[in-house]
Specification:
It catalyses: a 5,6-dihydrouridine in tRNA + NAD(+) = a uridine in tRNA + NADH + H(+); a 5,6-dihydrouridine in tRNA + NADP(+) = a uridine in tRNA + NADPH + H(+). This protein is an alpha/beta fold and 337 residues long. The chain has 2 domains: 243 residues, Alpha-Beta Barrel (TIM Barrel), CATH 3.20.20.70; 77 residues, Non-ribosomal Peptide Synthetase Peptidyl Carrier Protein, Chain A. It has 15 helices and 11 strands. The structure holds flavin mononucleotide (FMN). Flavin mononucleotide binds next to loops.
Length: 337
């Protein structure tokens, strides 16, 4: 059991528990967020949204603003490189969406984003963080949070300075991934630096990086003293991991893995939600990667995955996933190994 009596509160929003779904581009749309929420996440983050795309009302970007009422509390994340665009986008999210919290991305490591002076680029300059975050905080009513990495590279780890700059600027919470920009996803997340940051902040701190199991989540909370633990990759095709983690933190008991049928039912629920959100063609295409995550660990899943990758219709997709759930494909899968 994990004991921490301090309430976990961002602005005036009290979170039910300490388990947070990480923002993941191309993954954390409303269909996935709701599914994870139903497995008990205390807070879910949306995938990052470009300030400029939002400001020109790009149709796909506007669709990304959709939030299901059952997702609350949820955080919508924006990214950008210049103050004017960022503030304008934040104002839009503040006024016209039902997001509870506005998050600013200062962790994205990819070149395309860095070139626009956005994402992890900010990590080299605490003054810029202060300047940008204060401008957004002043312009909106909703609480503002920041998600960052520990630094740019090993020589530029300004984790504490950056976090304190955001706090001084009025941020209501900070989430931090324990890797530098240069590390991308290599090496290990540095939980010691997360602990050092956590000790300095007075606002809520959410620690992130390399939580793969419920036990990892407990270890991370204990090691860092963070208010929340953020989980990304471990939830891919595995939203029940969130439930297992919430439950483990509360009771100390590890829930058993769901059956293959139960797993496939969650995959189908996710799919139906994606269909409702994006239509059949896009949903089938986007579910290919999710299906391979849902099928991970099932021996000999290659044949079904190949079939799913060629599927263009919902009828076929459902039939394939159901065949796995019904155990028909399972025998075949084991044989294929
Ligand atoms: C596919 C994918 C997409 C991501 N997209 C975002 C994003 O849009 N915004 C963001 O702040 N971080 C993003 N991240 C980083 C995650 O939020 C998280 O910091 C990282 O995966 C480390 O946590 P984990 O070890 O639990 O996966 C992404 C990560 C992955 C794997």
């Amino acid at each position: 059991m994990y004991q921490n009596d301090k309430p976990f509160k961002i602005g005036d929003i009290t979170l039910d528990n300490r388990v947070v779904l990480a923002p993941m581009a191309g993954v954390c749309n409303s269909a996935f967020r709701l599914t994870v929420k139903e497995f008990g996440a205390g807070l879910v983050y949306a995938e990052m949204i470009s300030d400029k795309a939002l400001n020109i009302r790009n149709a796909k970007t506007m669709d990304m603003l959709y939030i299901d009422e059952r997702e609350h509390p949820m955080t919508l994340q924006i990214f950008g490189g210049d103050k004017e665009n960022l503030v304008e986008a934040a104002k839009y999210v503040d006024k016209y969406t039902n997001a509870d919290i506005i998050d600013i991305n200062m962790g994205c490591p990819v070149n395309k984003i860095i070139k626009c002076e956005a994402g992890a680029r900010w990590l080299l300059d605490p003054n810029k963080i202060y300047d940008m975050v204060s401008a957004v905080v002043e312009a909106v009513d909703k609480p503002v949070s920041c998600k960052m990495r520990i630094g740019w590279d090993d020589e530029h780890v300004f984790a504490i300075e950056n976090a304190l700059a955001a706090e001084r600027a009025g941020a209501s919470a900070i989430a931090m991934h324990g890797r530098t920009r240069v590390q991308m996803y290599e090496g290990k997340a540095n939980w010691d630096i997360l602990r050092d940051v956590s000790r300095e902040l007075t606002i809520p701190f959410i620690a992130n990086g390399d939580v793969e199991t419920p036990e990892d989540a407990k270890r991370m909370l204990e090691h860092t003293g963070a208010d929340g633990v953020m989980i990304g990759r471990a939830a891919l095709g595995n939203p029940w991991m969130i439930y297992q983690t919430v439950n483990y933190l509360e009771t100390g008991v590890l829930q058993p893995e769901p059956s293959i049928r139960e797993k496939m039912d969650v995959c189908l629920l996710h799919f139906e939600r994606l269909m409702a959100l994006k239509g059949e063609g896009t949903a089938v295409r986007e579910m290919r990667k999710h299906a391979s995550w849902y099928l991970k660990g099932l021996r000999g899943n290659g044949k079904v995955r190949t079939a799913i990758n060629q599927t263009t219709t919902a009828v076929e997709f459902r039939a394939l996933i159901n065949s796995v759930g019904d155990g028909m494909a399972e025998e075949e899968m084991i044989e294929v190994v």
